[in-house]
Design brief:
Helix content: 55-70%
Radius of gyration: 21 Å
Structural class: alpha/beta
Low-confidence stretches: 1-24, 37-43, 171-176
Shape: globular
Organism: Streptomyces boncukensis
Strand content: 5-15%
CATH topology of the largest domain: Glutaredoxin
Number of helices: 14
CATH superfamily of the largest domain: Glutaredoxin
Order of helices and strands: EHEHEHEHEEHHHHHHHHHH
Domain Thioredoxin: 35-153
Mean pLDDT: 80
Protein name: Tetratricopeptide repeat protein
InterPro entries: Thioredoxin-like_sf, Thioredoxin_CS, Thioredoxin_domain, TPR-like_helical_dom_sf
Number of domains: 3
Strand order of the largest sheet: 1-6-5-3-4-2
């Protein structure tokens, strides 16, 4: 399952930083030399604080050896205080397969702008000098873990990057005595398994079962919204859907399908904007259909996401 705003297919070059081709070549040479000498590639700390001055060396160059996860945060950000410890703990669990770079946005505005960060917490990855968005907001741990698993897989398959060989969890008191975790919810686990296997109807039913028992369960709400979204876009001809939406701006069903494709492809603002515009130029049942679909897509991202907050305000203006 892809967590919020996860889009592994949309790998793009960083817009205002040096390309990492030379860095990748040097890193590969360093790995080869270390292997020839019977040692492992250098590891170092798995969780680092990064600023603009050290970004190239600590993120771009190291991304040729290991996927670098970037956590954009700030001291005043309460969701950041929930997310950062989870990312740090999972990074140590992955034992060198990923590196976590923490960037304080208040002190590094240029990096925030280069990545196009609209709100925090925001999590990106850099692999072989290329950046991709992972998710925004304090996502559930299960989804974060699934995202990191996919990142590791894509890094190896697409770029041949396998991480810092031989790295071990950092030796600190927190890791020596980890806090006990709550047992995994069997219903949510079954829903996740169904989703991962492509059984979308099974996932939808499992999440509905969970919500029947716990109507306020956030993970089940997000999972259900994602499963239903994937079900709606399954089998769609993307080119035809976008042509229909462009040719028939007044066709609500065409706009709903295009918005679903936008969301599934990680184009969150485009999906929200399309539906808000549709609400603004329709009435009656058609307006209700566009409004309800927009609310469903809000669930995919999460109500705390700044893009959802902005879109809710735009929806209110369109309605009243």
């Amino acid at each position: 399952m892809q967590p919020r705003n996860m889009s592994m297919s949309g790998v793009v070059d960083l817009a205002a930083v040096k390309a990492a081709g030379e860095a990748k070549q040097k890193a590969e040479e360093a790995r080869a030399q270390a292997t020839a000498e019977g040692g492992a590639a250098p590891s170092g700390p798995l969780v680092i604080d990064v600023d603009e001055a050290g970004f190239e060396a600590e993120v771009l160059q190291r991304s040729a050896q290991v996927p670098v996860v970037i956590d954009f945060w700030a001291e005043w950000c309460e969701p950041c205080k929930q997310l950062s410890p989870v990312l740090e703990r999972l990074t140590r669990e992955y034992a060198g397969r990923i590196l976590l770079a923490k960037i304080d946005v208040d002190k590094n505005q240029m990096l925030m702008q280069q990545f196009g960060v609209q709100g925090i917490p925001a999590v990106f990855a850099v692999v072989a000098g290329q950046a991709l968005p992972l998710f925004q907001g304090a996502a559930p741990e299960q989804q974060i873990r699934a995202t990191l698993d996919q990142l590791v897989q894509v890094s190896e398959e697409r770029f041949g990057i396998t991480g810092l060989q031989g790295a071990a969890p950092e030796d600190d008191e927190e890791e020596a005595a980890p806090e006990p975790q709550a047992p995994e919810d069997p219903v949510l686990a079954a829903a996740q398994q169904a989703l991962d296997s492509g059984d979308l109807s099974g996932a939808v039913q499992a999440y509905k079962n969970k919500l029947a028992d716990e109507p306020g369960n956030v993970e089940a709400k997000v999972g259900l919204a994602m499963a239903e979204l994937l079900g709606r876009v399954q089998g769609l001809d993307a080119r035809q859907v976008r042509k229909d939406a462009a040719d028939r701006p007044g066709d609500v069903q065409a706009q709903l399908k295009a918005a679903d494709l936008d969301m599934a492809g990680g184009h969150v603002e485009d999906a929200f904007g399309r539906l808000v515009d549709t609400v603004g130029r329709t009435a009656g049942e058609e307006r209700d259909a566009a409004r309800l679909r927009l609310l469903e897509l809000f669930e995919v991202i999460g109500g705390e996401d700044p893009r959802v907050v902005s879109a809710r305000a735009a929806l209110t203006r369109a309605l009243f």
